User: Fold this.
Amino acid sequence: MSPAVSRIARLLGVAAIPLAILGVFFALPVVGMVSRGFWADGTFDPGAVLGVLGRPRVHRVLWFTLWSASLGTLLSLALGLPAAHVLYRRRFPGVSVLRAALLAPFVLPTVVVGVAFRQLVGESGPLGFLGIDGSPIAIIAGLVFFNASVVIRIVGGAWESLDPRAGEAAAALGAGPWQVLRTVTLPALRPSLVSAASVVFLFCATAFGVVLTLGGLAYSSVETEIYLLTANLLDLQAAAALSVLQLVVVTGLLLAAARARRTPDPALSRILARPRRLSSGDLPALGGTALLGLLVAGPILALVAGSLRHDDAWTLANYRALATTGEQQALIAPVTDALVTSLRTAFDATWMSLLLGLTVAVVVTRRSRSVSERRVRSVLDGVFMLPLGVSAVTLGFGFLITLDRPPLDLRDSPLLVPIAQALVALPLVVRTLVPVLAGVDDRLRQAAATLGAAPWRASLTVDLPVVARPLLAAAGFAFAVSLGEFGATSFLARDEHPTLPVVIFGLIGHPGPMNYGMALAASVVLASTTAAVMLAVERLHVPVGSF
Assistant:
């Protein structure tokens, strides 16, 4: 066996366990769910699945998903880019606090975002006079609220590393600020812009809680339509068709983003550029940042204010009611129990995603000694990003119909929800750790090996000090994402042990002012918890890598 083949074999051997886990808990449920649609009554019938795409309602769903995701992406870029410039290229008092506040929506639970916007634009809300409650405008605003922070985080990290000398040279030759931005800065940021746009479009197209909460039954995206078809109508053929179409589109987006990441960036330096003080030329960017700040602060303030109101009086009654089951026994378990369940589930999902994500990051970042080995690592990197491209609803329903018989009878296992949430958080963990490990000089490991250190000892000596802070940041991201995960959990959470997002959605679906007030208070508790986690992560100053 040649050395190149031997190295590839060892690489695949190390990746075998993560691949097996992904195969059992991702590929098997997704294939199982999709195959139920293709095999009707034991007969392979792909024509029926393809015929679903000819339904008028499916056309409306696809069109709404396309234009809403496209508009949400454009607006997220329009508001996120000025904020990225201000937060990563300029310094002023309170910049770290403002950055944490504008980045918090990155992991806020989608169901909380939906409830907050309903409170803001509903009939009794501060902006109720606009009459946009339940309209596409509210949905788009919710998508921008949720995804502008993605643009800030991805593009801001690249902008922070942009070599300022090219722009300074263009300015010295007479170029104005807008000309420098158009001819120097934006071309240098193109890979991060493409990556951010691809991820934001993906998140907008697969937004479940936002569309379900704000759109109800009047507007449905592919994600919410899959939920309706599986949970309410049991139309697995239609759900399979939409799931396959979604997977194909998202895989294409991930490939485009990966190609953009491989584009060399000569304007990016290895040393972070020193931020400059604000000047009058930053007024347009400050205006865009202020507009985004209002978009972020408005729903949150409306949510907090609403949670403190009951019977037209300021009170903590909604929060005290969290220890009850609500009006007319709306809940089986109190909200406080659901919070404990969410925290415990998020803890389990976090350590699972960290173990798997760290292994994947190590596998895909080690130095390749041949073109074939580099291609294998690139393929493995893409494979472990696939959970981004599959509906969490599809994954959750697939768990129910495939992991229900020996030797994988996990339907009643308390680990089922954490496993699903760990898979949802896995791409974020991998993208946080990969840039850090990829930046470690392999010669340091070789030097440690030359001095007699075993491979594991060399990794502990060389990699651990570098990856410690990013590992904590990845843990924070995974914990926050798991706390707010709603798509898969809505299928898998048991009635007696629901998570907090499931309880919030249940409360807003039950009539009664106390139930709605409890939903607002529970949303504040959940948002505060995730925001506290994000604030701790932001203090680590670890950016998320491109997807």
In short: The first strand starts at residue 39 and ends at 40.
